[in-house]
User: What shape does this take?
Amino acid sequence: MDLSDLRKRLSGRRIFHAYIVTGGTGEKRLRAGELIARAAVCSGAGPAPCGVCRDCVKALRGVHPDIETVRSQRKDRELTVDSMREVRSRAAVVPNEADRSVYIIADADLMNLQAQNAMLKIFEEPPGHAVFVLLAENPLKLIPTVRSRCETVTLPPEPEEEPGCRRLAEEIIKAYTSRDSLGLTRALSPMEKLDRTEVSELIPALRAIAVRAVPEKDLPDFSDTLDEAELMARANVNAGHIAGLLLGRLCDTRKR
Ligand SMILES: [Zn+2]
Assistant: This one.
């Protein structure tokens, strides 16, 4: 089931007991989970979520008493059996205002095995009013018996990062690694026309490519140079000056 199937099913007010939302980004998964939650509590007429009923409005404001997002309180983000047991006991209680109560489990793939088994116990005897939405970057970390009890919603993959920026970064690194200072001058010249946002995208792209393309011995200098470029970009120095810094530093490094 993808996002458009999900919308169709939700609008027909067909709500399952448990969902796994995967694909997309963390942010998109959370939004899809919130969409399911709104549809589940919506008390309006017509396709759900209606967006205007008392329940939808509270859900949109993030203050609906029957929608809870469960997150790990631990530094390592692992979801423990204790937090799942708490969810289990809260889910057994009838909802406050809506016909259903919804538990969005953020990073459900960080549930350890014990926690997943606790989740499984809930799924084996689900309270009629409860809906569970498991957000998971990697659903394969969930045990098969949990997966088989959930409707899986797969969000479309995120588009690749801006290709122009990526291509430019590739060109710059190619010239740098081939020790071609004239080529480097040429590769860096389009950078002068970039705006602030584009420069702030180019630097991480350079970093990402450098890790695999720049020889180990040159990496520390290369990385320092990028740090400096990043500081300049944050201080709003124009792209031409930053390109100048890169050219000076990167040619310099080559002579060492
Ligand atoms: Zn509504």
